[in-house]
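Section 5: illustrative case.
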């Protein structure tokens, strides 16, 4: 095929793709975004590149052909999406622009914001919003799977985060897990069970899901929602944001424990616990490897990620992540009290302090560079035989119903 600047490139081997992207990732990104004049979400970037540079990444048809297969039966074509995104994110201009694109409100969010403004409630299925006074409450709802995340939840949760952030009638936002249907937990809430491991085993979670999650709604909790005209790097520009409170009930497992590392104030029930079972899952726990050390230090972070350590919220170690522990039956009253306490001096100072902390702890360039590594390594993990073996050994995934 004819590559950039008239060169002839045959992308028949992964080594050739990597070598080409090492030199031309920025130009490839410019080609599919009209020299960075258009914002394209990561889920679409991978296919635009496949169309513009055949063989550099799997096509939409190639991915669709594997959609119904178990994870173990897939060929690993999406590894090349990870390699592509890794090189794009590693390029400063292209990677920053892609981060900017993913921090913009989703197209559906504006309509949902208008509806929420009129009605004060919004049901998105996998997420629901309610305004209570000057706070907007977001519930993550996947009761059949203990509020786990999967392909059916990611869009609704991101739209909910957009609406909560952009809502002009609130000063603060609360993130909470909804009530559960599971017989063991019926009538209780959980903050969330992390990724849906049954769906992961059955091949129902595509690789790009991981990147869209981290660059999308989880990043928006940390950095806010961007505007098209301002780079969301906190120094030269910034987005629209609110302080966030998390209410942890029952458990925050895996990806839901990761979310707590982006939150301004974490309330936890005294019987709740947190885990990051990355070793048993065979994947990288999002940005925990970057963020967790800031909270608990290097040793405990490694124990959590690599050696399955559980943190009960009401312990000295758990309190390194959780700001306040309350009796399980007192969570509603505690949320109202913390909302009042964090808003009685206005939102401006709180938002300014959020930005100042980010400059010191996680500037956009550090986030981008980490995600470049994450995209490459998570793609390899996603298609590793070890992932399948772990899910079968620890999760009995082959015998679970989807």
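Designed sequence:
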């Amino acid at each position: 095929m004819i590559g950039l600047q008239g060169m002839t490139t045959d992308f028949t081997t992964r080594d050739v793709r990597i070598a080409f992207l090492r030199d031309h990732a920025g130009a490839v990104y410019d080609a599919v975004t009209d020299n960075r004049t258009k914002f394209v979400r990561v889920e679409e970037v991978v296919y635009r590149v496949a169309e513009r540079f055949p063989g550099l990444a799997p096509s939409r048809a190639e991915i669709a052909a594997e959609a119904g297969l178990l994870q173990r039966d897939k060929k690993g074509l999406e590894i090349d999406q990870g390699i592509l995104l890794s090189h794009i994110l590693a390029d400063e201009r292209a990677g920053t622009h892609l981060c900017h694109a993913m921090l913009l409100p989703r197209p559906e969010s504006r309509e949902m914001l208008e509806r929420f403004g009129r009605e004060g409630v919004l049901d998105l299925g996998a997420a629901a919003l309610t305004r209570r006074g000057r706070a907007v409450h977001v519930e993550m709802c996947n009761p059949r799977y203990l509020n786990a995340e999967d392909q059916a939840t990611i869009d609704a949760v991101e739209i909910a985060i957009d609406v909560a952030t952009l809502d002009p009638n609130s000063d603060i936002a609360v993130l909470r897990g909804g009530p559960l249907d599971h017989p063991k937990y019926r009538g209780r809430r959980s903050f969330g069970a992390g990724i849906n491991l049954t769906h992961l085993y059955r091949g129902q979670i595509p690789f790009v899901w991981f990147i869209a999650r981290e660059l999308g709604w989880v990043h928006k909790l940390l950095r806010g929602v961007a505007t098209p005209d301002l780079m969301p790097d906190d120094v030269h520009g910034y987005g629209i944001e609110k302080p966030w409170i998390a209410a942890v009930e029952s458990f925050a497992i895996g990806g839901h424990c990761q979310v707590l590392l982006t939150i301004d104030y974490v309330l936890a029930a005294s019987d709740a616990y947190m885990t990051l079972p990355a070793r048993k899952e065979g994947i990288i726990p999002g940005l925990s490897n970057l963020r967790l050390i800031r909270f608990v230090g290097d040793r405990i972070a490694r124990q959590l990620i690599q050696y399955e350590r559980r943190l009960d919220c009401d312990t000295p170690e758990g309190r390194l992540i959780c700001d306040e522990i309350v009796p399980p039956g007192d969570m509603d009253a505690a949320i109202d009290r913390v909302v009042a306490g964090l808003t009685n001096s206005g939102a401006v100072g709180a938002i300014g302090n959020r930005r100042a902390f980010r400059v010191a702890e996680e500037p956009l360039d550090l986030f981008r560079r980490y995600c470049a590594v994450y995209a490459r390594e998570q793609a390899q993990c996603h298609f590793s035989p070890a992932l399948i073996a772990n899910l079968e050994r620890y999760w009995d995934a082959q015998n679970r119903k989807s």
